[in-house]
Amino acid sequence: MSEQDNEKGATMKLTEALEAQTKRVQGPPCAILVALTELDADDATALTAALASEMQSTMISRALASVGYPVASNTVGRHRRGDCSCGR
Ligand SMILES: [Zn+2]
């Protein structure tokens, strides 16, 4: 998107740019993202599908807790709305 901008003011090296991206992340990743990252592919897919479905956040929260990811239903809801730390 900003390739041209980067060329114009090519004062930053890629290593610095990558570092800046890393620093931009605010706070810890939300628990849903952690679960999605750590779960195996099947479970991550199932979780993604559950989040996109009509399934209640409390049910997803309980299911996650039962496999070792104690995620509050509020956190599930926030992730669904994109209000969590991984939303942006
Ligand atoms: Zn999230």
Outline of the structure:
The protein has 6 helices and no strands. It has 88 residues and is mostly helical.
Model description:
The protein has 88 residues and is mainly α. The protein has a domain at 27-87. It is 64% helix and 0% strand. The chain is built from six helices and no strands. The protein has helices at residues 3-8, 14-24, 31-38, 41-52, 57-66, 73-81. The longest helix is centred in the middle third of the chain and has 12 residues, at 41-52. The protein is elongated and about 50 Å long. Bound molecules: zinc ion. Residues 30, 32-33, 79, 84, 86-87 line the site of zinc ion.
Question: What are the SSEs and their pairings?
Answer:
Elements: H1 3-8, H2 14-24, H3 31-38, H4 41-52, H5 57-66, H6 73-81
Bound molecules: zinc ion.
Zinc ion binds at residues 30, 32-33, 79, 84, 86-87.
Keywords:
0% strand, 88 residues, binds zinc ion
Number of helices, where a helix is a run of at least 4 consecutive DSSP H or I residues: 6
Mean pLDDT comes to 85
User: Uncertain runs with pLDDT below 50, 5 residues or more?
Assistant: none
Structural class assignment: mainly alpha
Shape: elongated
Report the order of strands and helices: HHHHHH
What is the total tally of β strands? 0
Kindly report how far apart the N and C termini lie.
17 Å
Residues in β-strands, percent: under 5%
Helix content: 55-70%
The hetero molecules present are: zinc ion
Radius of gyration: 17 Å
Largest sheet geometry: none
